[in-house]
Each structure stands twice: as structure tokens, then as C-alpha cells.
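Thread: quick sanity check before group meeting

JM: Hey all, I'm pulling together slides for Thursday and realized we never actually wrote out the predicted structure for the chain we discussed last week. Dropping the sequence here so it's in one place. If anyone has concerns about the input, flag it before I start.
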Amino acid sequence: MRKTEAECCDAVETHTDVIREVRGRMPEETTIRELADFYKVFGDATRVRILCVLLRAEMCVCDLAELLGMTQSAISHQLRILKQMKLVKNRREGKTVFYSLADDHIQTIISQGMEHISE
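JM (edit): ok, ran it. Output follows.
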């Protein structure tokens, strides 16, 4: 595999009109950090696997652990992170807690990511 370097300008010239326009439209720094943290959640293969499962069906921790070949403790840990980032939600039915994707945005993010890497 060949490394590709980013190409640079041959001459240093800034385009102040574009810089000024973009600077005025940039999100606040706290928003940028929150967005970076949001995407960090997708940097863990186990969490992505859990999200892919929950794309297909609502499941309890026991079923997720069995399906993914992991301990319930490990699954619970990852679900806690996903819930903190508002990617999953849960509901209780008797003694069982079921997890599902928090909303349609999560499905869209995963689907678009899959489409991107398939190109």
C-alpha cells in the first residue's frame, strides 16, 4: 500500500474573504468537542457491533451477550456509554430490560457510514 501525502499550495496566499465567511459560520468550540466525543463512540468495534444488532431488533443484555459472544458485564459497560451519548434507549418489561436505538438518526449515521466504506 502506497502512502499518499496531502498536496500543498506552491505559493502561500490566504483568501481572507473565504476565511472571514467560514469563521463566522463555525460552531462554538464546545459544540465541536461534543461532536468529536460523539464520533469517538463509533471508534470502538464492540459498540458498533451492538448498534448494528440494535438496527435489526430490540434486545436485552442477555441476548446481546449471547449473540456477540461476550459477557453481560462487558455488554452492560458498552451500553452505558451508548446510553450516555444518547445513541440507545431502554425500556423495562418485568425483570427484563430491552435496548433499542435512540432514534432514526442513529440508523442513518450507521447506514451512511456503511455506504461510504462500501464505495
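AS: nice. The beta strands are 59-60, 88-93, 96-101. Residues 104-118 form the longest helix (15 residues).
JM: adding both to the slides.
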